[in-house]
Amino acid sequence: MKIRYFDHSATTAVDKEVLEAMIPYFSENYGNPSSVYSIGKENKEVINISRMKIATILNCKVNEIYFTSCGSESDNLILKGIAFANKNRGNHIITTQIEHPAILNTCKFLEKFGFRVTYLRPNSKGIIDIKELERSITKNTILISVMFANNEIGTIQPIKEIGAIARKYGIYFHTDSVQAIGNIKVDVKEYNIDAISLSGHKFYGPKGIGVAYVRENIPFMRMQDGGHQEKDKRAGTENVAGIVGIAKAMEIADENLEGYNRKIKNLRDFYVSEMVKRVPYIRINGDMENRLSGNANICFSGVDGAKLLSELDKKGICASSGSACSAGLLTPSHVLLAIGVPNNLARSSLRITFGKENTMEDTQYLVENIEEIVNNLRK
Fold first, then answer.
1. What Å distances lie between residue 353 and 153, 187, 268, 317, CA to CA?
2. Phi, psi (5° rounding) for residue 175?
3. CATH number, domain 256-378, options 3.40.1010.20, 3.90.1150.10, 3.40.50.1100, 1.10.260.40
4. Is 325 a catalytic site residue?
5. Where along the chain do the CATH 3.90.1150.10 domains lie?
6. Dmax over Cα atoms in the chain, in whole Å?
C-alpha cells in the first residue's frame, strides 16, 4: 500500500540534498570540534560556516546563533535563561493560551520560582488582541513569548506589531518559530524579535538539531552544565552532521519559499473546498487568511477523532488530530478549547498539513477517503 503523508507539521523527511551534505560527518569527517588537531579544527570551521548561513537567513549576527537538540530545548533555554538572568528587573512574563507545550510547561515551571505569567486568550480564529497584550504589560514585565504560527490550527500572529510593542516598552520578545521557519520569511530585525526557537526536522532537515537565536547583549543563563561549547551557553559535544543538515535545509527552504507555498496552498485550498462541498456539519478552525499555506484543521461533528485517524491509517493516510492521543484516549486540544470549540467537537478534529511531496492525486485520494470514512462513522 502506498503511504500518503499529510502530517508535515509533526515532522518531515530529510531532503536528499540535506542527507548528502550530512553523510561525510558521520564516518569520514568525524573529529570532535573541541579538539586541537586538524580534523577537529576543520569541523569547528564547518560549524562556524553553518552558523553564518543561518544568521544570514534570519538577518542576525553570527554570534547570536546557538545550536541545541530541538525546538523544545531552545524554548527552555531561552525562556528559563532570560527569566532567571533578568529576575532583578522583574518577574512578569506574557504568553498565550495556545502555545506549544514546550512554552506552556516551561512557564508553569517558572511560576514555581516566583514568576508571574499572563496567558492571553486568542479570539475564535486563534489571533491575540494586540491591545490586550499592551494592557497586560506592567513595570515588572521582562519577557513576551508568542509563537509565530500555531502548530495545530496554522494561525499566524501579528508578530511585527508585537515586536514593536515589546521594543516600545523595553521588553524582550521571543517567538517560537518552529512552524514558521521553512514556511515564512523570518527577519529578526524587521520584526523586532529578540529571540527565536526553531527545529530542523520541521523543514526537511534532520531530527535532533535545533537553533536558538538570542540577540547579543541580552543576558541569559545557561541551563546545561558541562563544557564550554556554544559560547558557554549550551554544554555538550556539537552534533556536526545535524548542524550541517539544519543549515542546508534552511538554505533550500529559503531559496524555494515562494514556489513551495504556492504549491501547498493550492493543495490545501482544494482539500478545504472539497470538504465544504462534500461533508456537512464541519468546522474549519483558525484564520483562513493569516495562516500557514499547508495547514487545514477541521472538526467533523459526530465523529470520534481517534477512530477517524485509525480508519485513515488503514488507507495508508498519515494525519493527526491536533490533540494528544495517549493509550487510545483522545483528549481535546488545548488550542481548540482556547478558541472556543466545544469539548465534544474538539475531539473530532483532524489536522492535515501538506508538504512538497504531496500531489493533487494524493489530495483527491485523501478527500474521497475522508468523505467515505466520515459518512460511515456517522452511521
1. 10, 24, 8, 12
2. -130, 125
3. 3.90.1150.10
4. yes
5. 256-378
6. 69
pLDDT tens, N- to C-terminus, the chain (379 residues): 899 999 999 999 999 999 999 999 999 998 888 888 888 889 899 999 999 999 999 999 999 999 999 999 999 999 999 999 999 999 999 999 999 999 999 999 999 999 999 999 999 999 999 999 999 999 999 999 999 999 999 999 999 999 999 999 999 999 999 999 999 999 999 999 999 999 999 999 999 999 999 999 999 998 888 888 888 889 898 999 999 999 999 999 999 999 999 999 999 999 999 999 999 999 999 999 999 999 999 999 999 999 999 999 999 999 998 655 443 556 889 999 999 999 999 999 999 999 999 999 999 999 999 999 999 999 8
One of 3.40.50.720, 2.30.42.10, 3.40.50.80, 3.40.640.10 is the CATH number of 16-255, namely 3.40.640.10
Point out which residues pair with 352 in neighbouring strands: 296
Residue with cell 467515505: 372
Amino acid occupying residue 255: E
pTM for the full model? 0.95
